[in-house]
Amino acid sequence: MRALYTALWRLALPFMFLYLHWRGRKQPEYRHHWRERLGWAPLLPREPVIWLHTVSVGETRAAAPLVRALRKRRPDATILLSHVTPTGRATALEVYGDGIRQTYLPYDLPGPVRRFLDRSHPGLAIFMETEVWPNLYAELGRRGIPAYLVNARLSERSARGYGRIAGLIRPALAGLAGIAAQTGADADRLASLGAGAPLVTGNLKFDVAASPDTFERAEDLRRRFAGRFVFLAASTREGEEALILDTCLGLAIPDLLLVIVPRHPQRFDEVAALLESRGVDYARRSLGHPVTRDTEVFLGDSMGEMAAYYAAAEVAFVGGSLLPLGGQNLIEAADMGCPVLIGPHTWNFLDAAERAIEHGAALRMADAEDLAHAVKHLHQHPELRHAMAEAGLAFSRAHKGATERVMAMLEADLAKLR
């Protein structure tokens, strides 16, 4: 089955570059470093190399506590981060600076994979969340390079999809040195697909510490917001902003300020155009617009400030969940003590969402109108907001510790790394 998979990849390769060119119209960074996708990774010196694959922004930020622990355990090693998206690459520079090396993940073809490994020669490979690349995994196994899947999650929907190609997925998962799953349900679903005895280690995102300047940035935002009641629509996805504008701008909250922070930076201009088309009075973070008494919406079109937005808000909706998109991570909001509202679609973070609700840190909304009613209710009941904020902090503290458990799993191969 892997031969068929490889043949399909070869047929798709020209279209992959057409896709990069097309994406590059709005995000020119997609046209940069394209040779790395064919395996031309940085030529690294012959010293211990730990390779960590983080697909995009969320995985790159979630890896921060693990990267810190790896640096502490093996300060002599070079850490190579690979990505799929330009935003993931940019986030790595913001979070880790020049202390790491970077590359794009090679396309999963034998030639690019071999070239990548020849140039980077990792002694240990770690893949964040659910990344299964059959040719890459097979080549790592052939070379005797231990590979791990950490912070692994697998929804029921994804498990059903993988089950349809079990002949391809089973050997890939079975060849891994270890798998660290976020939850017992994730571990069970991975085991059903051929993973050998996944460990349940928890979610690394609970161990992510806010950057040192987070609260300074939050205080600056509060000054800009001038005492308004801030409802934050965080990590919104396409279609959600219109729903929120339809239902929340007309709320009878005289001091309401709606802050919208789209999930993907390439949509910042799109959301600005939406606001203009509706005649909404808005301020834009990137342009330094002041928030006046007439400002209805503040567009948070900046990178790396989400934690500060949560810390500055009275209540937050976490996006990707009003529409069937799977939801975005709510852990950062809870860790900042911000009451959380989520929509009905949270299968990407189902365990975290359900546990946050059980702790009293989050409330689930049926639709956008339900969301609007909840915002108004929380505005009228500051004691409920306070209780949810305290519950969020307790929820976050109770689920820390995944980094230690993952490092224990990696210890034997870290010790042998030369």
SSE map:
Elements (H helix, E strand, L loop, with lengths): L1 H22 L25 E5 L3 H6 L1 H10 L4 E6 L2 H11 L4 E4 L5 H11 L3 E5 L5 H10 L3 E6 L3 H8 L2 H9 L3 E4 L2 H9 L6 E2 L13 H12 L3 E8 L3 H9 L7 E7 L5 H10 L4 E3 L12 E3 L6 H7 L2 E4 L12 H5 L4 E3 L7 H10 L2 E3 L3 H13 L1 H17 L3 H15 L2
Parallel strand pairs: 1-2, 1-4, 2-3, 4-5, 5-6, 6-7, 8-9, 8-12, 9-11, 10-11, 12-13, 13-14
Summarize the structure.
46% of the residues lie in helices and 15% in strands. The chain is of the alpha/beta class and 418 residues long.
Number of domains: 2
User: Which structural class matches the secondary elements?
Assistant: alpha/beta
CATH structural class of the largest domain? Alpha Beta
Number of DSSP strands? 14
CATH topology of the largest domain: Rossmann fold
Average pLDDT score: 95
Superfamily (CATH H level) name of the largest domain: 3-Deoxy-D-manno-octulosonic-acid transferase, N-terminal domain
Helical residues, percent: 40-55%
- Distance separating the two termini: 35 Å
